[in-house]
C-alpha cells in the first residue's frame, strides 16, 4: 500500500513538473481598461468646468470631407469663426471627422487635425471630436464635394461609414485602423475634451443594425484608452438597446435634445440617475422652442455642458429647418440653427447678449 502511494506521489510530482514546463496557451488579450469609474468621471468634470459651445464646421464647408480634405481645409475661415465664438465666451466646439479623409491621406489628415487644435486652443476652445455618424446622406466619395441644394437643410452632409459598411466586408478593418490611429495619435492631447465615438447610432432607419459597430468602436477605444473620456450620445427613446449600451459604457453621459425646457429637463432627470457628468452635445432649434434663452441658463445652473447646433450660417444650410425646404433659397422667417451671419453679425443680438451674460460673468 505504501509502495503504491509512493509511486502515485512520484507520478503526480512528475506530472505537475511537466505541466509547469509545458508551453502555455496564448492568453486572450483584453482591453487594459474599459469604462472610467465615477471618481475619474467627476475629476474630469472638475478639471474642465462648464463646457459651452457649438457644433462647428466652417461656413465654407458643406460636410466633413470638405472640412478636412487638403484642398478645402480652410484655416482662414476656421480662425475667423472661432474668434467669434471666443468673443461670446464659448470654450468648446464639437467637430465631425470622416474616415475617408484619413484613408486618402493619413498623415496629412492627422496634421490638419493638429492644426485645427492649435487654432482652437489659441482661442481658448477645446474640442469634442466626433468619429462615426448615422445622419443624412448614405454614400460619399473623396474629392470635390457637391454644392448645397438651395434652401435645403444639410443637403450635403454624409454618414460615416453609412451604407458602405453593409456592402464592403473589408471596411471594418479600415475603420478599426482609422479609429485606433487617431485615438493613439491624440490620446494625451489636453486640447481635446471628449471623444464622441458615434453620433446618433441607429438614425436613418438603421436601428439595431448600428449596434455591432457601436460596440466595436468602444472596444477599439478601450484598447487605446485615451486620457480623454469616451462617449456616445443618446438621442432617441425608441432605441432602447442602443441607449442601454451607450449609457452603460460611456465615461461621461452625452445626449441630444431639441425639445422645450420641460421635456429637456425630464431627460436630464432620467440621465442624472447614472451619476456621471452630463454634456448636451446638441440642442437649440428655434422652431421647437429649444432656445438659448430657455435652455442654456437651465444647463448652466446644473453644470451640464451646453453645445448647440450651428455657429455660422454657411454651406450646411442648417439655418433652414429639417423638413421645411425653401425652394428659392430666401431667408427663413425664423432661423432653425446658427448664431452668426457669414460676416460675423449676430442673427439675434439679444441671444448673443444672453450667451455673453452666462459665459463672460462669474
The helix/strand series, from N terminus to C terminus, equals: HHEHHEHHEHEHEHEHEHEH
Query: Tally the helices: what do you get?
Result: 12
Number of discrete domains: 1
Q: What does the radius of gyration come to?
A: 24 Å
Which shape, going by the Cα principal axes?
globular
Instruction: Please report the total strand number as a whole number.
Output: 8
Average pLDDT value?
A: 92
Would you tell me which CATH topology applies? TIM Barrel
| CATH architecture term | Alpha-Beta Barrel
Terminal Cα span: 88 Å
Q: How do the strands of the widest beta sheet line up side by side?
A: 5-4-3-2-1-8-7-6
The CATH first-level class comes to Alpha Beta
Helix content: 25-40%
Q: Quick one: CATH superfamily? A: Glycosidases
Largest sheet: 8 strands, parallel
Low-confidence stretches: 1-26
In percent, how much strand structure appears in the residues? 5-15%
Kindly name the structural category. Answer: alpha/beta
Signal peptide: 1-17
InterPro entries: GH
Keywords: Signal
Topology diagram in text:
Elements: H1 2-21, H2 38-48, E1 52-55, H3 64-68, H4 75-87, E2 92-96, H5 99-104, H6 106-122, E3 126-133, H7 171-185, E4 192-199, H8 211-224, E5 230-231, H9 240-249, E6 253-256, H10 261-271, E7 278-282, H11 292-301, E8 305-309, H12 349-359
Helix pairs in contact: 4-6, 7-8, 8-9, 11-12
Amino acid at each position: 500500500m505504501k509502495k503504491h502511494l509512493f509511486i502515485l506521489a512520484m507520478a503526480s510530482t512528475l506530472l505537475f513538473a511537466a505541466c509547469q514546463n509545458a508551453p502555455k496557451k496564448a492568453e486572450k488579450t483584453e482591453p487594459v481598461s474599459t469604462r472610467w469609474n465615477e471618481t475619474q468621471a467627476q475629476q474630469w468634470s472638475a478639471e474642465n468646468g462648464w463646457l459651452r459651445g457649438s457644433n462647428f464646421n466652417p461656413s465654407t464647408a458643406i460636410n466633413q470631407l470638405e472640412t478636412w480634405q487638403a484642398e478645402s481645409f480652410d484655416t482662414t475661415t476656421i480662425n475667423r469663426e472661432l474668434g467669434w465664438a471666443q468673443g461670446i465666451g464659448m470654450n468648446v466646439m464639437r467637430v465631425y471627422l470622416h474616415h475617408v479623409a484619413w484613408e486618402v491621406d493619413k498623415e496629412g489628415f492627422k496634421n490638419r487635425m493638429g492644426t485645427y487644435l492649435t487654432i482652437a486652443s489659441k482661442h481658448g476652445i477645446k474640442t469634442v471630436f466626433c468619429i462615426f455618424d448615422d445622419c443624412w446622406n448614405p454614400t460619399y466619395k473623396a474629392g470635390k464635394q457637391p454644392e448645397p441644394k438651395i434652401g435645403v437643410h444639410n443637403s450635403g452632409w454624409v454618414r460615416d461609414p453609412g451604407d458602405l459598411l453593409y456592402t464592403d466586408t473589408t471596411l471594418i478593418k479600415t475603420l478599426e485602423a482609422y479609429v485606433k490611429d487617431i485615438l493613439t495619435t491624440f490620446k494625451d492631447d489636453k486640447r481635446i475634451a471628449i471623444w464622441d465615438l458615434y453620433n446618433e447610432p441607429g438614425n436613418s432607419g438603421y436601428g439595431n443594425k448600428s449596434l455591432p459597430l457601436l460596440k466595436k468602436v468602444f472596444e477599439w477605444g478601450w484598447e487605446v484608452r485615451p486620457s480623454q473620456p469616451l462617449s456616445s450620445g443618446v438621442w432617441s427613446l425608441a432605441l432602447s438597446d442602443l441607449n442601454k449600451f451607450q449609457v452603460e459604457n460611456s465615461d461621461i453621459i452625452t445626449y441630444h435634445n431639441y425639445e422645450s425646457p420641460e421635456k429637456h429637463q425630464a431627460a436630464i432627470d432620467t440621465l442624472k440617475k447614472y451619476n456621471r457628468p452630463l454634456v448636451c452635445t446638441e440642442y437649440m432649434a428655434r422652431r421647437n422652442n429649444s432656445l438659448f434663452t430657455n435652455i442654456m441658463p437651465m444647463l448652466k445652473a446644473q453644470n451640464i455642458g451646453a453645445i448647440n447646433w450651428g455657429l455660422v450660417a454657411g454651406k450646411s444650410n442648417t439655418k433652414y429647418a429639417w423638413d421645411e425646404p425653401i425652394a428659392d433659397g430666401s431667408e427663413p422667417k425664423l432661423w432653425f440653427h446658427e448664431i452668426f451671419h457669414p460676416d460675423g453679425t449676430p442673427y439675434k443680438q439679444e441671444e448673443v447678449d444672453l450667451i455673453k451674460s452666462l459665459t463672460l460673468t462669474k
